[in-house]
Design brief:
With 232 residues, the protein is α/β, with parallel strands linked by helices. Helices cover 41% and strands 22% of the residues. It has eight helices and twelve strands. The model has no long low-confidence stretch (mean pLDDT 85).
Length: 232
């Protein structure tokens, strides 16, 4: 039998952020609920056994600080604050009232997932989702924690964007990944750029893969949709 996925409650009143965060967490195997205000979030928390809370600070009605205080009186589940307020005072207040970590907006997928997994390991003594930072496919290995890509002849020199694109493709090896999803992964929740930007970076990624001794068609174009990393 498979393990029950960790359950996470995301509380934010910006749809673009909740869409991005829930997409990223669900793809990693987490069970995610989303709510846009503190009152409903607290009611859900009292009715359901959540393993982690992701809270915005500036919420309508009950703000994130007040919600955290109320949660702390009822549960020991970790709290990760997300906020555009990035001053030292904001971070100190968030941690002093019971928050466990603080992530400033804008942020990227990898940083979000790394923070979530670290909090879950801290809360449970292990990572219940079994997160290995290494991905291997078709002779290439990515260490997502160290941000290192390694091929048969050694390390492959990738920019951060190229690394994130390759990581997204390799996590889904054999499957088509749309340009929109690649934008989410490589550019974070503020992916305010055109999808043709992905094409430009993919071309550079292919050049580097070929220079490392692999065929450039390891990253296939699926016309009209996106790209696929060949699983060999």
């Amino acid at each position: 039998m498979s393990e029950t996925p960790n359950r996470i409650l995301v509380v934010d009143d910006e749809p673009s952020i909740t869409e991005f965060v829930s997409y990223a967490l669900k793809r990693e195997g987490f069970s995610v609920d989303v709510v846009d205000n503190g009152e409903d979030a607290f009611a859900l928390a009292m009715a359901n056994p959540y393993d982690l809370f992701v809270l915005d600070i500036m919420l309508p009605g009950m703000d994130g600080y007040d919600l955290c205080r109320r949660l702390r009186a009822k549960t020991t589940a970790p709290v990760l604050f997300l906020s555009a307020r990035d001053t030292e005072l904001d971070k100190v207040v968030g941690l002093e009232i019971g928050g466990d970590d603080y992530l400033a907006k804008p942020f990227g997928v990898r940083e979000l997932i790394a923070r979530v997994r670290a909090l879950l390991r801290r809360g449970f003594g292990k990572d219940p989702q079994g997160s290995s930072s290494a991905i291997t496919a078709s002779g290439i290995t990515l260490d997502e924690d160290a941000h290192v890509a390694t091929g048969a002849s050694g390390d492959i020199d990738l920019t951060p964007r190229e690394f994130e694109l390759l990581a997204s493709l390799m996590r889904n090896a054999g499957k088509v990944v749309s340009r929109e999803d690649l934008l989410r992964d490589a550019w974070g929740w503020e992916y305010l750029t055109e999808t043709k930007t992905v094409d430009t970076h993919i071309k550079r990624l292919r050049d580097k893969i070929e220079a490392a001794g692999y065929h450039s068609t390891l990253v296939e174009t699926v016309r009209g949709y996106g790209y696929r990393f060949k699983q060999q």
